[in-house]
Amino acid sequence: QVQLVESGGGLVQAGGSLRLSCVVSVGTFSSYHMGWFRQAPGKEREFAATINWSGGKTYYADSVKGRFTISRDNAKNTVYLQMNSLKPEDTAVYYCAANSRPLISTTPTGYSYWGQGTQVTVSS
Fold first, then answer.
1. Which tens digits make up the pLDDT trace of 49-81?
2. DSSP 12
3. HSE (CB half, 13 Å, CA atoms) of 22?
4. What one-character DSSP code corresponds to residue 9?
5. pLDDT band at 90 (very low <50, low <70, confident <90, very high)
6. pLDDT at 37 over 90
7. Average pLDDT of 20-40?
């Protein structure tokens, strides 16, 4: 069974930074592509960033490109999302997800395992 636990969310002022972490309980973490999604109240879950199994390829939503950085440490079974220059519209529950398929994905249906989410609130 694959378990994902996010941490690092909180309340921050606009322009500030947060780093989210996601620890994955699985023996073969390095075989999973990993992603971060977010969901604001009343809106659908949307893609934020993804990283391939080795960390050599990353993709970002246009809305976060240049401000967010996804990374991973396969020795620690952990994926990170560094969020800088935060805006009020970044307020959402952020979810970590694991993709065991061969191809990297930017859609929720491409991921088999999800964490419980961590709240990020950006005040203006």
1. 999 999 999 999 999 999 999 999 999 999 999
2. E
3. 31
4. -
5. very high
6. yes
7. 96
Helix, coil or strand: residue 43: coil
> 122 and 14 in contact (C-beta within 8 Å)?
yes
For residues 91 and 53, give the distance between their C-alpha atoms in angstroms, rounded to a whole number.
28
CA–CA distance, 87 with 2 (Å, rounded to integer): 32
Binning pLDDT at 50, 70 and 90, where does residue 2 land? very high
Counting Cβ atoms within 10 Å, is residue 37 exposed (0-12), middle (13-18) or buried (19+)?
buried
Q: Is residue 27 predicted with pLDDT exceeding 90?
A: no
Closest CA to 4 of 72, 77, 76, 54: 77
Residue 80 near residue 35, CB atoms below 8 Å: no
| Residue written as token pair 């990374």 | 71
User: Quick check: 107 and 99 in contact, CB under 8 A?
Assistant: no
